[in-house]
Amino acid sequence: MKTLVVGANGKIGKILVGLLKEEDKHTVSAMVRSAEQKEAYTSQGVEAVLADLEGSVDELSKAMEGCDAIVFTAGSGGSTGADKTLLIDLDGAVKTIEAAEKAGIERFIMVSALQAQTRENWNEHILPYYVAKHYADRMLLASKLNYTIIRPGGLTDEPGTGLVQIEENLTRGYIPRADVAKVIVASLDDSRTYKRSFDLVSGEAQLPEAFNGLA
Fold it and tell me: Could you tell me which of 141, 134, 132, 57 has the C-alpha nearest to residue 90?
């Protein structure tokens, strides 16, 4: 399965590209927005494509050519304002969904945020981010794509443990970005994650057994 990683220059994206590069089951294409970022990947032997989430749906669809799955792990980042959150985390995500449908790609994994589905539990300090995640997720749910929505808790840069907790409704918790990337890879062709949304934090279950909680 050839997977396009949207947001390949982000922290989770870089880890994910590395994992997919080393895998036997999947191949990877890294979507980046600058020539320098593309060169950084191609110099490592990783296929990379240039596209901008503030560009057109056609541009994004072209970047997806030849791919079988899309992972959306892009974000505007904490140093930008609500305007960029709206343009990248919401509209960029929705355009990626539309582009996947246009390109005939069915498999789509969205990296969202813990409790994005429940307004009452949103972090009041980053409300625009949660609004963006909530409505991007709703657009994916309304699409015809074979989606998985992964809602990780607070993200850390600690080494991954491979031990996670996966449930449809978890109210708090943290998880290393490395473990989020591992869950994405494991989700790609695991039917237990098809058309499912779930919260993700560090726990005691190993992959892929951790998906049993979705049964």
Answer: 132
The neighbour count for residue 171, using CB atoms within 10 Å, is 11
Identity (one letter) of the amino acid at 170? L
pLDDT at 80 over 80: no
For residues 71-100, give the mean pLDDT: 91
CA-to-CA separations, 69 to 126, 131, 203, 210, in angstroms, rounded: 29, 25, 27, 22
Of the candidates 112, 110, 118, the residue with the CA atom closest to the CA atom of residue 146: 110
Comparing CA positions, the residue from 66, 69, 55, 100 lying closest to residue 5 is 69
CB distance 184 to 16 below 8 Å:
yes
> What residues are annotated to the active site?
129
pTM for this prediction: 0.96
- Residue 7 token pair: 């947001």
Q: Tell me: the pLDDT tens digits for 38-65?
A: 999 999 999 999 999 999 999 999 999 9
Helices (H), the chain: 11-22, 35-42, 57-63, 82-84, 93-103, 127-142, 177-187
C-alpha–C-alpha distance, residues 27 and 146, integer Å? 19
